[in-house]
Amino acid sequence: MLISKYSAPDFDPYGDRASANPDVPWPAPVADGPLRASVALPGSKSLTNRELVLAALADGPSLLRSPLHSLDSENMVQALRALGTVIEERPGSGPFGADLLVTPADELFGSTTIDCGQAGTVMRFVPPVAGLALGPTTFDADDSARGRPMKTMITALRAVGVDINDDGRGSLPFTVHGTGRVGGGSITIDASASSQFVSGLLLSAPRFDDGLHLVHEGERLPSLPHIEMTIAALAARGVTVASPAVGEWMVSPGSIRATDIAIEPDLSNAAPFLAAALVAGGSVTITGWPATTTQVGADLADLLPLLGATVERSGDRLTVSGDGAAAGGIRGVALDLTTGGELAPAIVALAALADGPSEITGIGHIRHHETDRLAALAAEINGLGGDVTELEDGLRIVPRPLHGGVWRSYHDHRMATAGAIIGLAVPGVEIENVATTAKTLPQFTQLWQAMLTEGAP
Ligand SMILES: O=C(O)C1=C[C@@H](OP(=O)(O)O)[C@@H](O)[C@H](O)C1
Ligand SMILES: C=C(OP(=O)(O)O)C(=O)O
């Protein structure tokens, strides 16, 4: 298991023994009263993995303070190390593990195999870096992630001059034959399946000979805030980057500045905890909420009130309060979540406990996340007695009285946490393979239990 050291000596990344064994389902705890909890969360996956890539391509050593330590970030660290980047642990600035000092390689070298695990950010951000390395780099992933779409990245890299060997199916595994240089230039791609194709190309683009002029043409462009996060991260390191129109980006060739950066807490991973306040009633506070951020999780402050929550900000604390599902405190909603598909599993779990029907649309692309999340959410909620219908690009959820049962997680961290949300109100929900939460939040069960016991009479 690729979990690196944590500052707390007795830190157990799995929270408890049962959750460490994927064969033993985790009994999701039921909330026995209103919550009054304050939760600190580890660093953002999206920020950590962008900053690791940029640091590896930068003009000197960078320090990442309070980065995420999880399977996704560990896969990124190992990937960049395999290409010659030196990544060393330094005493942690925060409670969730070491800081990372990243020293770029004088020259990136391939002749290696990279295990992307389940990380979309590794499989979409690192192949362009491998194009800049000398020698072949083979990319592979967990069985459950091998089918995730890669065709757009393969064709895009070929279009900027990178030689790739694949089996023609547009998925992993494939081999990037890096020559140490990438031409770059003007290309058009279809990023309908994932914004990560755009982000991955933009992150390496300053190191392409001619930079990159990238145009998206396709039926939809999901997760725009994640692309804006990429642009902001590049700009913060002195890269000249612009988006002259929606679906068009330009990156000038040039150096990427080394920096010292603090990684914000993962606001998308705040979703299940904040949702808990609506389900159980009472309040949940997330500490360290940034004043300004590019994370789409910040939208929870606007989304959760639509479902009946009250949201308050005080300094760096964001508090969500609710009346509880039993008191009819969750309202049905019609929501387009095109920009924040990552938040959908938590919102859908809330909708299953609401006082009326919901329709969540704009999220067809989440069929290509860790699993087909539309099919998985419908199957698992319906398996507990619910009434969820798959739409082409979303879900229609009609709340029904739910009963206990096994909730399958499909190797998907957000499926596991969505089941935990429902389990707060429905006795007898058992989450299969809750350890899958280690993808982005190895401490999930521990933090969830602490949220439920804190402030309890
Ligand atoms: O760039 C990123 O960090 C991410 C982009 C989004 O991907 P999609 O555009 O594939 O939804 C998001 O869902 C994922 O969790 C993280
Ligand atoms: C879609 C997700 O992950 P990935 O970065 O692997 O695409 C997610 O975390 O919800």
Automatic annotation (TrEMBL):
<feature type="binding site">
    <location>
        <position position="46"/>
    </location>
    <ligand>
        <name>3-phosphoshikimate</name>
    </ligand>
</feature>
<feature type="domain" description="Enolpyruvate transferase">
    <location>
        <begin position="33"/>
        <end position="446"/>
    </location>
</feature>
<dbReference type="InterPro" id="IPR036968">
    <property type="entry name" value="Enolpyruvate_Tfrase_sf"/>
</dbReference>
<protein>
    <recommendedName>
        <fullName>3-phosphoshikimate 1-carboxyvinyltransferase</fullName>
        <ecNumber>2.5.1.19</ecNumber>
    </recommendedName>
</protein>
<comment type="function">
    <text>Catalyzes the transfer of the enolpyruvyl moiety of phosphoenolpyruvate (PEP) to the 5-hydroxyl of shikimate-3-phosphate (S3P) to produce enolpyruvyl shikimate-3-phosphate and inorganic phosphate.</text>
</comment>
<feature type="binding site">
    <location>
        <position position="195"/>
    </location>
    <ligand>
        <name>3-phosphoshikimate</name>
    </ligand>
</feature>
<feature type="binding site">
    <location>
        <position position="342"/>
    </location>
    <ligand>
        <name>3-phosphoshikimate</name>
    </ligand>
</feature>
<dbReference type="GO" id="GO:0003866">
    <property type="term" value="F:3-phosphoshikimate 1-carboxyvinyltransferase activity"/>
</dbReference>
<comment type="similarity">
    <text>Belongs to the EPSP synthase family.</text>
</comment>
<feature type="active site" description="Proton acceptor">
    <location>
        <position position="342"/>
    </location>
</feature>
<dbReference type="GO" id="GO:0005737">
    <property type="term" value="C:cytoplasm"/>
</dbReference>
<feature type="binding site">
    <location>
        <position position="439"/>
    </location>
    <ligand>
        <name>phosphoenolpyruvate</name>
    </ligand>
</feature>
<feature type="binding site">
    <location>
        <position position="194"/>
    </location>
    <ligand>
        <name>3-phosphoshikimate</name>
    </ligand>
</feature>
<feature type="binding site">
    <location>
        <position position="50"/>
    </location>
    <ligand>
        <name>3-phosphoshikimate</name>
    </ligand>
</feature>
<dbReference type="GO" id="GO:0009423">
    <property type="term" value="P:chorismate biosynthetic process"/>
</dbReference>
<feature type="binding site">
    <location>
        <position position="120"/>
    </location>
    <ligand>
        <name>phosphoenolpyruvate</name>
    </ligand>
</feature>
<keyword id="KW-0808">Transferase</keyword>
<feature type="binding site">
    <location>
        <position position="373"/>
    </location>
    <ligand>
        <name>phosphoenolpyruvate</name>
    </ligand>
</feature>
<dbReference type="Pfam" id="PF00275">
    <property type="entry name" value="EPSP_synthase"/>
</dbReference>
<keyword id="KW-0057">Aromatic amino acid biosynthesis</keyword>
<comment type="pathway">
    <text>Metabolic intermediate biosynthesis; chorismate biosynthesis; chorismate from D-erythrose 4-phosphate and phosphoenolpyruvate: step 6/7.</text>
</comment>
<feature type="binding site">
    <location>
        <position position="196"/>
    </location>
    <ligand>
        <name>phosphoenolpyruvate</name>
    </ligand>
</feature>
<keyword id="KW-0028">Amino-acid biosynthesis</keyword>
<dbReference type="GO" id="GO:0008652">
    <property type="term" value="P:amino acid biosynthetic process"/>
</dbReference>
<feature type="binding site">
    <location>
        <position position="369"/>
    </location>
    <ligand>
        <name>3-phosphoshikimate</name>
    </ligand>
</feature>
<feature type="binding site">
    <location>
        <position position="223"/>
    </location>
    <ligand>
        <name>3-phosphoshikimate</name>
    </ligand>
</feature>
<comment type="subunit">
    <text>Monomer.</text>
</comment>
<feature type="binding site">
    <location>
        <position position="45"/>
    </location>
    <ligand>
        <name>phosphoenolpyruvate</name>
    </ligand>
</feature>
<keyword id="KW-0963">Cytoplasm</keyword>
<dbReference type="InterPro" id="IPR006264">
    <property type="entry name" value="EPSP_synthase"/>
</dbReference>
<feature type="binding site">
    <location>
        <position position="196"/>
    </location>
    <ligand>
        <name>3-phosphoshikimate</name>
    </ligand>
</feature>
<dbReference type="InterPro" id="IPR001986">
    <property type="entry name" value="Enolpyruvate_Tfrase_dom"/>
</dbReference>
<feature type="binding site">
    <location>
        <position position="414"/>
    </location>
    <ligand>
        <name>phosphoenolpyruvate</name>
    </ligand>
</feature>
<dbReference type="InterPro" id="IPR023193">
    <property type="entry name" value="EPSP_synthase_CS"/>
</dbReference>
<dbReference type="InterPro" id="IPR013792">
    <property type="entry name" value="RNA3'P_cycl/enolpyr_Trfase_a/b"/>
</dbReference>
<dbReference type="GO" id="GO:0009073">
    <property type="term" value="P:aromatic amino acid family biosynthetic process"/>
</dbReference>
<feature type="binding site">
    <location>
        <position position="148"/>
    </location>
    <ligand>
        <name>phosphoenolpyruvate</name>
    </ligand>
</feature>
<feature type="binding site">
    <location>
        <position position="45"/>
    </location>
    <ligand>
        <name>3-phosphoshikimate</name>
    </ligand>
</feature>
